[in-house]
Structure formats: structure tokens, C-alpha cells
Amino acid sequence: MSGVNYVTKVTLDSMRDELTQLKTKGRSEIAKAISEAREKGDLKENAEYDAAKEAQGMHEAKIAVLENAIATARIVEADSIDTSKVSVLCKVTITNMANKKTITYQLVSESEADLKLGKISVTSPIGKGLLGKKVGEEASIIAPNGNNMKFKVEEITI
Q1: DSSP class of 110
Q2: In whole angstroms, what separates CA 10 from the centre of its chain?
Q3: Distances 47 to 2, 26, 51, 146 between C-alpha atoms, Å
Q4: The pTM is what?
């Protein structure tokens, strides 16, 4: 993920805690698994060793992604959010013009996105289409499947 990563202070603290855990306990567990696999004999034919080394690579990649997310993080405070238009961390209530269903989403960074909690990424098609819109405006969004969806912004809150 490149560019600025807008997050709340709580999310940034959570990311830092996870990074600390990955660098300490996580690394020591993987080192132990590699050591145990190495003791089991010939490394050329040792699937357990190969799996442990692969897990180590994936673990280090996760650390790198998290370090980048933290390095590019910018804390956004709730009282500094402009609710005159849709922006990061706003809650926006929209109506799908095709079926007249109304739904509320909070626009968040990629790392915080969770559709089950009503949090969508600002880099998602809907998130991008809603950014900068004001109450009463319509957003025309091309979905990944190619369909053109129209949404009307009903309300913007924190």
C-alpha cells in the first residue's frame, strides 16, 4: 500500500501492538519451528523444514506490509472531519437509486475495511465514487462486474 494511510489513533495503536507481537513472539515461534525441523535430518527431503521456511517468508512479508502501513499512517481526529462532503472516516448514508435501498457505510483505509461492520475502503469503487460528494448529490459508480450503479448521498456524519 502506498500513499497516505488515514487511520484513527486506536487503529494505529492496534497496528503497532500487532507489529511488536509479530517481531517478538512470532519470530521466536518460527525460529523454534525451523530449529526443530532442522534436527529431523536431511534438509533436501525435509518437508517440515521447507514449510517452516515458507512460513518465515510469509511472516516477514506481513511485518513489511505492517511497517509500511504504520510509516504512511496519518491520524485523523473525529473533530477535524469536514462533514459538508464525504471524506475519510465519515459515515455516509446512501440510497441505491435502482432498488431504493438505503445503507450507511463508514469510509476507512484499506487496513480497516470490514464490510460486515459497515466499513468500506476509500480505495474501493464505491468509496472512490463517494469521496467529495455532498448531501443530495448522486454518485455514478462502475462496479467490478461492469454494472453502472447510482447512489444518492442522504446524510454525512462522523
Answers
A1: G
A2: 14
A3: 36, 21, 6, 44
A4: 0.67
